[in-house]
Write a structure and sequence with these properties.
- Two copies of one chain form a homodimer.
- The first copy, chain A, has 551 residues and is of the alpha+beta class.
- The first copy, chain A, contains 15 helices and 16 strands.
- In chain A, α2 packs across α13, α3 packs parallel to α5 and α5 runs antiparallel to α6.
- The first copy, chain A, is globular and about 85 Å long.
- At the A-B interface, β6 of A face β6 of B.
């Protein structure tokens, strides 16, 4: 996620909460993976990315015997998305190594990463995110270990130069993978009704696992940090699968530790070099903190954490509440310049959607109050806002927003999730909106998730499954190992940042299909829990399928 | 030096000699240097390189307070040439470091290195020698330490990217310098008759010191290894100045350790990863090993080393001797395809020069025999070859070579150094050759040294000094801190490798003026030994002069 700068509100540090989060820091699990094959990419108009990987004539076992000189290059395929540290042994082939060897290494999450050049990329976020490194090695044999962490499945190796007197050979190429979730970590094995759903479920879990480091990162490639909007969805997927409550709790307390003087929470925190709030602020993310805490307390049973966080939960909705017109009880986006997100769609009118988000969050506060045996503070406001929400349903029974009566998925999803309307009204307005030709569609998996969750909320399982199969299934068919930050079925090079080479292809906010498939949709997809499986076993199954596809 | 590939002759390892060389491995001295100033380069047609450094408006003390963002750059001037390891502290300036920082660091020995781009360099040796690094830093503050050794005076820092949210600042920039010669190492302080001679002497010593690492390297930037032709000149300069006999002995025994089965020696050895011969072979370098050993024994008094090396000295001239026509007693270049070097000048006819080199070397063998109280083995051959050498002097009294009677400095220098002719004949032919309009001139400092040494041999001190002042003095006037691999007074971008960006500007074979100035020329330049001075003091004096020049 990259964001709009906001005014700076001083931080009212809660050092006790910071200590709680510090004590919950995980020891990262580490394991090694080797490349599965050498691949070449050929143009293929039928493929989503326009290229197709096929195994090189040289089997991976021959790699140590292959010598590469100036201008040579190859791509290694590890068969599975990984987050970790690359090492290899570089050997000299020739009488003497009479010059350094310069290599360019490009870490590919997608085939585009390893088939497009990384020069002259025009992007409005930092080009320092680009996944290439140029390194020079003076002497061989050398055990090369790159100090930075990368997120990748493919490794493109370009030999920029050796000398006329020697070439280089590569052996012992390995990625030391890292995650808060070990290979031995167990989760339910679920049998699905189709290979596509099985793969969607797997990609969701892989995405989640690779984002689970010392915090829930939004994307292990970019920007590698904790955003509250992503955290909420990751936590939901986590409850359905890996059930690491400590990491969720740690992240919740990180946000609560950097509460600001007006009681609001930043949209994002930096864990390193020391815990600190980002200057990014998003009104809807702030309020949704209440939902994150509620979900955590319900799933974990950790009521005492709920008690501790109660003041934070109360204050996190204040800024959002300040947007409500006391006369109309409507959320008015224009009451502040503060950023309301919902989705990246540029023309989106956010009044109705924000109204829905706030009701959803106030209800979460009320539910948490009940669990904590406190008086629910927002019953009256919820009732008034729910009543007011009826005007977001047009006479044609679609969800509308703003002075232009804009029809959008965002408005529909959040007003349905807020359960502000009778279920039959909500259901038909939602279905009408989705099928409306003029409706503003989601641009992000984040909003697609909320559309799916809204559909499930009103029992529209088939419609939800169609989106999952089309949207997330589209990524799987395009070759995804993990789900992406951004997916435009029509344009493989679409990017919110000006250039696809700065996109993240393992991104937290797209990891939720498993939450639905293993949750409310389980029966609808004839899913059956067949026992337990480890993450290592799931990875091995994936590698078998992914490298077997083209062989 | 970069070379022509030769046939491979198996190595007849002398492991005893290798052990001797291993035991002589120096502990490198280490000391830190900080940048003296921020500089900007402006176009200046009067300057040799076409640019002139001037101090930036920001004093170096302000560096830590300066923030640099995408596209910014600056150049640090350390005021003296160094070989070592760069470190600095990188700080984030801004609310948060929300992206990595990508930097390009270019290590400049010359102003061209830090003012020309390093992309798309066309050179027939490896572009991996180019002195730039691209690094990515994920988190600040960060103590950045680059693992490779660099050779430089200037450091160009280009901020490829940060992000719109932060910039970076640099502090604690340091180079940990390394050499076999410490800052406390003492040598004679010599007062010269002119500042130019003082600077030429100093640049010679700096060149020597920066090449003195675990071996005598040809150039610490490129190619960082031991060539016998360079070693001979370095040893001579060393005897006049730093007098580190152990490092010379170590290098001599490294060559003797990798003797080949036919008794010849490679032109170059690799010290790391383990001692091994280069495949490069040069006939004249092989024979000159005898001269290196003789010089060492004479200067150090280490006769026992001479005893041990006697068989190697005997065998190192064999391949050269095989080029002598037994009927004419003339060295015939065409008797083998083996590489005869003398100089890089492409049209040079090498018959006469090689004849001179061989006589010179056979005389060295004979002299060593006398020291070792052995029978001189080549008295007869020397006499015959000296007699035959007369035909290299033309009727016009210039030195000629080959069927075309080519006139060249190379022929003249080596036939004079061989002392094959009566001194008056040699002197006049040498002076006539040097002043002849058609004479093939030297392309390398290596041959210029031999011209100077030849002039001194026949008492032509003024003529020698003129060359030193013009040629080495020309480098000083152009801003040299150390002497270069290649210097063309007419063309600052001349290169034996296709592009000046791959030239070495601290190169062993140009370090000899100090050998002559402190030796046979001392009286001619009214040089006076005034006491002792340390290398550290010499460096400080240089820095004061070099950074004071434009202020």
């Amino acid at each position: 996620m990259a964001s709009i700068a906001e005014e700076i509100i001083p931080t009212a540090w809660n050092r006790d909460f910071e200590k709680i989060s510090d004590h919950l820091a995980p020891s990262l699990a580490r394991w090694n993976r080797s490349p599965q094959r050498l691949v070449t990419f050929e143009a293929d108009q039928a493929a989503y990315f326009g290229v197709r990987a096929s195994p090189d004539n040289n089997g991976i076992d021959r790699l140590p015997s292959l010598a590469w000189g100036k201008g040579d290059e190859f791509v290694l395929d590890f068969g599975v998305h990984m987050v970790g540290y690359l090492s290899f042994k570089l050997n000299c082939v020739g009488a003497n190594m009479d010059a350094p060897c310069r290599l360019r290494l490009t870490f590919g999450e997608s085939p585009l990463d390893v088939t497009m050049p990384m020069d002259n990329v025009e992007t409005w976020i930092s080009t320092a995110w680009l996944p290439d490194e140029v390194i020079n090695i003076d002497m061989c044999p050398e055990a090369v270990s790159l100090p930075r962490r990368y997120s990748f499945r493919f490794l493109r190796v370009q030999v920029v130069d050796t000398s006329p007197k020697f070439k280089v050979a590569f052996s012992d190429v390995e990625c030391e993978c890292v995650s808060a979730i070990s290979q031995a970590h167990e989760l339910d094995a679920v049998a699905f009704s189709s290979p596509l759903l099985r793969d969607i479920d797997h990609c969701s879990i892989s995405t989640l696992r690779d984002c689970m480091q010392t915090v829930f990162e939004d994307g292990p490639r970019r920007d590698r940090r904790l955003w509250s909007g992503d955290l909420r969805l990751q936590a939901l997927a986590n409850y359905s699968t890996l059930r690491d409550f400590n990491l969720v709790k740690r992240c919740i307390f990180q946000f609560a530790a950097v509460i600001r003087e007006d009681g609001s929470l930043p949209a994002c925190v930096f864990e390193k070099p020391k815990l600190s709030p980002s200057s990014d602020y998003i009104v809807d993310y702030d309020a949704l903190f209440a939902s994150i805490v509620l979900d955590y307390v319900v799933e974990s049973g950790d009521v005492s954490a709920g008690e501790m966080l109660w003041p934070t939960v109360l204050s996190c909705v204040k800024r959002s509440l300040a947007h409500v017109n006391p006369e109309t009880n409507l959320f008015e986006v224009n009451r502040s310049e503060q950023w309301k997100f919902l989705d990246w769609a540029p023309t989106l009118d956010k009044n109705a959607g924000s109204h829905g988000v706030l009701i959803y969050c106030l209800k979460a506060v009320n539910k948490l109050a009940t669990i904590l045996e406190k008086e629910a503070p927002h019953l009256d406001t919820v009732e008034k806002m729910a009543k007011a929400a009826r005007q977001f349903v047009s006479k044609d029974n679609v969800f509308i927003s703003g002075t232009e009566n804009q029809i959008s998925y965002a408005s529909a999803a959040w007003l349905v999730l807020a359960e502000a309307l009778p279920e039959d009204v909500a259901r038909s307005a939602l279905l009408n909106t989705i099928s409306h030709a003029d409706a503003v569609k989601p641009l992000t998996p984040y909003l697609w998730h909320h559309v799916c969750d809204a559909l499930v909320t009103v029992g529209c399982y088939d419609e939800c499954l169609k989106i999952i199969n089309d949207y997330w299934g589209g990524m799987v068919r395009a070759g995804a190992d993990t789900f992406w930050e951004c997916y435009d079925p029509q344009d493989a090079r679409a990017s919110p940042y000006g250039d696809v080479r700065n996109n993240s292809f393992c991104h937290a906010w797209s990891c939720t299909p498993t939450y639905l498939l293993r949750g409310k949709l389980l029966d609808a997809v004839s899913g059956k829990v067949t026992g337990k499986v480890t993450m290592g076993e799931l990875d091995e199954q994936w590698i078998q399928r992914s490298v077997g596809q083209n062989e």
